[in-house]
Amino acid sequence: MQTMHLTLPVGAFGWDNNPLTEDEFRARIEALRAIMTARGWAGVIVFGDIPESGLLTYVSNFAPRLSPAFALIPLTGEPEILSLDGGRMVDAGKETTWMTKVSPAAADLAGPMQEWLDQFGANPSIGLAGFEIMPAAIHGEIAGLAGIHAGADASLALAGLARCKSAAELAILRENCEMLSQAAVACTETYANGASAAAATIAAERAARMAGAQDVRCLYSVDGGNSFKPYQGADDGLGDPAIVYIALRGRGYWVDGFVTIGQSDAAHAAAASALEKAVTAIRAGRAVKETGSPSGHPLLAGSMGNGIGVSLQEAPRLDGGDDAFSAGDVVSVKIGVGDPSSGFGFASGLLHVGDTGNEMLWQS
To answer: What is the CATH number of domain 22-163?
Structure first.
């Protein structure tokens, strides 16, 4: 789901407070290099921007501050970061990554990019990840460079590696679910004390940030779930019930969910029942289409959710397609049922898919 995001989503994020070790990141690089060897790629370039830095974060733990960045990963040798930030923002970014070389490229991107490509000789075979979200102006600066204009898509391959969550990643996700619970409690209590849905949404965001969230994005509905909006100023609407969507990121990983505040109704009960059935149907190796019918609410775009982790939307997408669940997936299941006249109910849960069973990390 696309939501509003802050101009400078810095938050509590640095290398020293990250339970992921350098060894874990190097293992990811080696797994990627196995793919590079099989496909004949001399290197892989991974792009990330502020709204979506998932694949970049996965390989580097780097968090773009104001501008996009690239991870440059050769088949042999040390990977490095090219950041389009400048000055102190580059220094701040260095504090988030295990890579020792972080260079500014705000004044000239093509020059250092070409210098890196030159080590592979003329017309190298390069994999490109995250380029599908790259702004046209940035793409125009480097599109003509040898190795990039004919680069191969590496996004799906890298995203496939990111699906299987390690024990350390699950530890982060569990901590993030605690922050999500704190945000939900703050939201519910604020509303119960007579505040508006907008004020309750702000209370949820404040609680998440106080708990250490790196980024928080919220939407709320006061018209029975027919429409959702971000906080845009004073709004006395109550809804009763009102529905709040909360997404937060901590240490590079996202969690999200819906919270119903106020007097829950039959639509909410129906959504909770549908969520239980969907969760029961999810198993490693089972086709996504066996979990049930996709949600009919337009906000969910014909899906019952998706994988989640370094990106808000990862594979698999729960839209009835032919994809299958894999052990290691963390899935955000979202249910929205009802109709415009009587209102919609929402329920959601975060599920870790295991080899022999599943773990519910959080449930609304």
So the answer is: 3.40.350.10
Task: Tell me how far apart the alpha carbons of residues 317 and 114 are, in angstroms, rounded to a whole number.
Answer: 36
Contact (Cβ atoms closer than 8 angstroms) between residue 181 and residue 362: yes
- Enumerate long-range contacts of 154-157, CB under 8 Å, 24 or more apart: 154/35, 154/41, 154/44, 154/46, 154/127, 154/128, 154/129, 155/55, 155/128, 155/129, 155/130, 155/131, 157/32, 157/35, 157/39, 157/127, 157/129
Using the Cα atoms of residue 57, residue 63, residue 67 and residue 70 in order, give the sign of their dihedral.
negative
Return the ∠ at Cα 2 (arms to 244 and 331), rounded to 5°. 75
For 229-286, what is each residue's pLDDT tens digit? 998 888 888 888 999 999 999 988 999 999 999 887 788 888 899 899 888 989 888 8
The closest alpha carbon to 56, from 106, 14, 22, 96, belongs to 96
* Residue 16: band (very low, low, confident or very high) from pLDDT cuts 50, 70, 90: low
Cβ(364)–Cβ(339) below 8 Å: no
Q: How does residue 356 score in pLDDT terms, banded at 50, 70 and 90?
A: confident
Boundaries of every domain in the chain: 22-163, 167-363
Both structure tokens of 301: 């775009």
